[in-house]
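task queued by scheduler; priority normal; single chain, no ligands, no partner chains; default sampling; output format set to structure tokens
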Amino acid sequence: MSLPTLLTPTADPGVIANGSGLPGLAQLREIVGALLTFGLVACVAALVISAVVWGLGSNSGNPHLAGRGKSGVLVAAGAALLIGAANAIVTFFSNVGATI
């Protein structure tokens, strides 16, 4: 029994990523780089504010406020980790996808 023609594997179409195919690509890279910087600065601000909230909550005996501060510190640190690793993450999955 043979497979229908729609389900048979096809040849590689030969399409690859093109770094110069779109006008404005250099400007888009500049904008994304600026967004990365903005995101990291926002993470630093969030980390400082969360640490202050954590300290105030701990010193005032308010466990809810201290817990919120701890959560904020973890979220800000995780966001900074993801922002900093964004290029590596995308490159890794792009390379994995290219091998499929």
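post-processing summary
- The chain has a mean pLDDT of 89.
- The CA atoms of residues 5 and 11 lie 13 Å apart.
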